[in-house]
Specification:
Blueprint (H helix, E strand, L loop, with lengths): L2 H27 L4 E6 L7 H16 L4 E6 L10 H6 L5 E2 L25 H9 L1 H6 L8 E11 L1 E4 L13 E4 L3 H8 L4 E4 L5 H6 L5 E4 L1 H6 L8 E4 L4 E9 H6 L2 H36 L3 E4 L2 H11 L1 H5 L1 H4 L1 H9 L3
Parallel strand pairs: 1-2, 1-3, 6-7, 6-8, 9-11
Antiparallel strand pairs: 4-10, 5-8, 5-9
Length: about 325
C-alpha cells in the first residue's frame, strides 16, 4: 500500500470512529430509561401509597432519563398473596408487604404480630431502629429478599358487626386475618375463627357478612371504607401493622453501585416522608370515621383492656421458640 493510500485509509478509519462515537452518544441519549416497578396493595392516599409516589418523584428527579419508577397501587398487578413471588421472579422490583407476609421467608418477623407486645408506635420505632430491629432487615437474604427499611402504618384496632368490649364478645365470630400463624393463634385465644383472606377482598367479605370482623389501622379502615360496613370499632391498639420495603437480591446487586446509592437514599427519604404521614393520619382518619357516624367507637377501660391482654398474651410463649426469646425481650425493653 502506498503512503498516500495508507494516509487515506487511516483518515477513513478515524472518520468512521468519530461517526460511531457520535452515533453511540446519540443512541445512548435516546435510550429508554430502566423501568422500576413498585407494586403495593393499598390505596394511594395511605402512608404506603404516598411513600411509593414520593420514591418515584425522587428517583426520577435525581436520575433523570436513567430510571423510571412506575407505581401500581390497589393490587393492580399483584395481590398480597403473590407479590413476593413476583418480586423474586423480577416481575416487579419493589414491594412493601406487611410484616406478617414474610412468615414463609423467616419466622423472626413474626415478632411484629404478637398481640399487645408494643404499647405504642414510639416503642415500635425504638425497636425497629435498634440493633436487633436492623438485623431483621437482613433476615431473608438467603431467600433472595433484601430488606431496605420499615414503613409505619400504625396500631391495629378491632372492628366487627357487634360491640367488642370483652374477649368473650369475639367468641364464634369470623375475623379476616393476613396469612399469619400468629394472628390465627391470637383470635383462637379468644375462641374466634380466623379467616385468611387477601386484603383486596376484605370490604366485600364484610359487606356480604361472609365474615364478622377484621383488624386494621385507622388509615386502612378509613381509606378502604371498612367503617361503612362495620357497625363497631374497638380502639384496642392491640398490635402493629407496619411494612418492610424490600427488593430482590438479584435486582439490587444488578444496579451500578453509584445508582444503587442514589436509589437507596431516595427510598430512605421517601420512607421518612411516609412515616410522617402515618403519624399525622392516625388522629385525622379516626376523627373522619367518628364524624361519619357510620360506626360506633368503643374505648376500653383499663380493666377491659387487661382482660384482652390476659387472654391473648399466652400467644407469646406459643411462638417463643420460633421467634427467639432474646428478640421478644428486646421488643419488651423498647416499651420502657
Amino acid at each position: 500500500m502506498t503512503r498516500l493510500n495508507t494516509c487515506t485509509f487511516i483518515k477513513q478509519i478515524v472518520k468512521m470512529a468519530s461517526i460511531a462515537a457520535i452515533l453511540g452518544t446519540s443512541l445512548n441519549s435516546w435510550a429508554a430509561p430502566t423501568e422500576i416497578k413498585f407494586s403495593h396493595v393499598v390505596a394511594e392516599n395511605t402512608p404506603k401509597g404516598q411513600m411509593a409516589l414520593k420514591f418515584k418523584q425522587l428517583v426520577e428527579e435525581r436520575l433523570p432519563g436513567e430510571y423510571q419508577v412506575n407505581v401500581f397501587p390497589n393490587s393492580q398487578l399483584f395481590g398480597d398473596n403473590n407479590e413476593l413471588s413476583a418480586l423474586l421472579l423480577n416481575d416487579v422490583q419493589f414491594v412493601a408487604p406487611s410484616l406478617s407476609k414474610f412468615e414463609r421467608y423467616t419466622k423472626k418477623l413474626q415478632i411484629f404480630d404478637l398481640p399487645f407486645l408494643f404499647k405504642d408506635m414510639d416503642a415500635v420505632n425504638r425497636f425497629q431502629q435498634s440493633d436487633a430491629g436492623q438485623l431483621l432487615l437482613n433476615s431473608m437474604k438467603r431467600k433472595g429478599v433484601v430488606g431496605l427499611g420499615y414503613l409505619h402504618n400504625g396500631m391495629k384496632q378491632f372492628s366487627a358487626s357487634s360491640p367488642l368490649i370483652l374477649p368473650e364478645d369475639a367468641q364464634g365470630k369470623k375475623f379476616r386475618i393476613m396469612a399469619s400463624d400468629v394472628l390465627a393463634a391470637q383470635f383462637q385465644a379468644v375462641d374466634a375463627i380466623p379467616v385468611k383472606k387477601p386484603f383486596s377482598e376484605v370490604f366485600t367479605l364484610l359487606q356480604t357478612r361472609a365474615i364478622d370482623g377484621q383488624e386494621n389501622t385507622w388509615s386502612n379502615i378509613y381509606s378502604k371504607k371498612f367503617y361503612e360496613v362495620q357497625s363497631n370499632i374497638t380502639e384496642s391498639n392491640h398490635g402493629v401493622l407496619d411494612y418492610m420495603v424490600v427488593t430482590s437480591n438479584t435486582f439490587w446487586k444488578s444496579l451500578p453501585a453509584d445508582k444503587r446509592k442514589v436509589i437507596k437514599a431516595s427510598l430512605d427519604e421517601a420512607i421518612a416522608y411516609g412515616n410522617d404521614i402515618a403519624a399525622a393520619k392516625v388522629n385525622k382518619d379516626k376523627q373522619a370515621i367518628i364524624d361519619s357516624k357510620r360506626s360506633e367507637i368503643t374505648y376500653l377501660s383499663p380493666d377491659q383492656r387487661a382482660a384482652w391482654v390476659n387472654a391473648m398474651k399466652p400467644v407469646w410463649a406459643q411462638f417463643e421458640d420460633k421467634i427467639g426469646k432474646d428478640l421478644i425481650d428486646a421488643a419488651v425493653a423498647a416499651n420502657e
